[in-house]
Amino acid sequence: MFNTTVSGSGPVLVWAHGLMHSMDFETRTGWFHPAAEDGVCRVRYDARGHGHSPGGTDSAAYLWSAQADDLLAIASAHTALPRALGGHSMGAASALLAALTAPELTSCLILATPPTAWQTRPKQVRRYRQMQRIIEQRGLTSLVNLTMQNPALPDWLLQAHPEHATASQQALSTMHAPTLTAILEAACACDLPDSSTLQQLKVPTLILGWRNDPIHPVQSAELLAEALPVAELHIIDSASDLQRWPLQISEFVRRHTAG
What we know:
This is Pimeloyl-ACP methyl ester carboxylesterase. It comes from Halopseudomonas aestusnigri. One of its GO terms (cellular component) is membrane. It holds the Pfam family Hydrolase_4. The chain is of the alpha/beta class. About 45% of the residues lie in helices and about 15% in strands. A seven-stranded mixed sheet has the order 1-3-2-4-5-6-7, sandwiched between helices. The radius of gyration is 17 Å and the shape is globular.
């Protein structure tokens, strides 16, 4: 049922995209994946209710824990070997929970722009509730128009790549309003595990954060790096640094995952 693509050869990385995004969005922006073969086999998919993957209106299906189960099912369908898991924002949360569920099958973990968590989560929940009200009272088109006026991306990124905001808006506009309402309901009920749980995950982890984004605060990345016992943290604040992320991800996967 999931729209899935497999590209490249080498050690396997199973990757999950962010909330209200899709594989197409990530391909268009190039934040995480190279344009050419780089020695990593990438298994990517549209999350339930996103892109070209169908979804219903049961919010329980969109909880981060449920999405972690989806990620593990997709991973198992493509490789039985220890594999790298990774994702952006919502996808990072899914990958983290999947690694906690099956650490013995996770060679390494990539958490790109981790979502709001712990102390910063209530503010984000209020934002999701506002989005739900806009959809219910004025329709999805109104929400898309508002995101055009206030793109949820760092200013330094918007200045370098204004087309990335357009890609984000287009991904949002293709979603089904009742499904998105359910997805947001699930997001309101989610948070990352506490530090004592994270300390048990002895999987090499690459954490990629960027500055000046309230939806993906540096604080989340820093706290994850403190809690996870085998973590590398890289924080950026420029488009030129962002261009290096695909290579950093691939190098990390090749270093920690057997082909």
